[in-house]
Amino acid sequence: MLLYAVAVFLATTVLYHFMNPGWVDLRRARILMTDDRFQEALPILESVKARGLQSDLLDEKLGEALLRAGRGSEVIALLKTDSTLHGLGRVRLLAGAYAQDQRPEGGLAFFEEFLKGQGQLDAGARLQYASLLRQARRDGEAEAAYAMVTGPESRRARLELAEMQAWQGRFGEAIPSLRQLVEEDPSDRAIRLLLARVLTWSGDYQESQAEYRKLLSPP
């Protein structure tokens, strides 16, 4: 009898989620977001929220779409009010919103709260954390955090660290790092352009011109 009751409850719950218009629209918006069609998904999610559907999943997807639309302050208002333990996905959304709102310390506070609770950061989160430290001008901590980024995200981490070093006038560290990144992927024109600019800032005009010539050459 108990198993029957549980089965009925589960079946009813699943059917409700499939038939309820709010859940149907939420699924439609998620499919659009999977195809990177955030602009189309956003009004659907806002409509579902306005109709009163209560769901952590809805809030996170709406937050993600708002962030993509450059509406970071609304993401903060939407997600910060939740007093439940923040998972890494929600921490990253809030951190991104605070960064977009030019308040990196707010995002760092959520990361640090998460880490105090023995949370683990994946490579993408480590890169975001390091970027926030840099934005907050906590350069020493940012440099240490960039060094801990591994895997596919490490290239981006090395680039951001080299940018930070260049802005600090530490050309002796920034230029070799940028040269290595260019050697690893000569087709990455954005990094070669940055290398050329940093060489100019350092006063090495001959090498800078050589890099600019490479940029102007046919691929």
Structural summary, described in words:
The chain is an all-alpha fold and 219 residues long. The protein folds into 3 domains: 18-69; 73-152; 169-219, no CATH class. 77% of the residues lie in helices and 0% in strands. It contains 13 helices and no strands. Helix 6 (88-100) packs antiparallel against helix 7 (104-116), helix 6 (88-100) packs parallel to helix 8 (123-135) and helix 9 (139-147) packs antiparallel against helix 10 (154-167). It is elongated and about 65 Å long. The model is unreliable at 4-18 (pLDDT under 50).
| Shape type | elongated
* Helix/sheet category: mainly alpha
Low-confidence stretches: 4-18
- Please give the count of helices: 13
Q: Quaternary status of these chains?
A: single chain
Radius of gyration: 23 Å
Mean pLDDT across the residues is: 89
What percent of the residues sit in helical stretches (DSSP H or I)?
Answer: over 70%
Content of β-strand: under 5%
SSE string, helix = H, strand = E?
HHHHHHHHHHHHH
Secondary structure topology:
Blueprint: H1 2-19, H2 21-34, H3 38-50, H4 56-68, H5 72-79, H6 88-100, H7 104-116, H8 123-135, H9 139-147, H10 154-167, H11 171-184, H12 189-202, H13 205-216
Concise account of the structure shown:
With 219 residues, the chain is mainly alpha-helical. It has 13 helices and no strands.
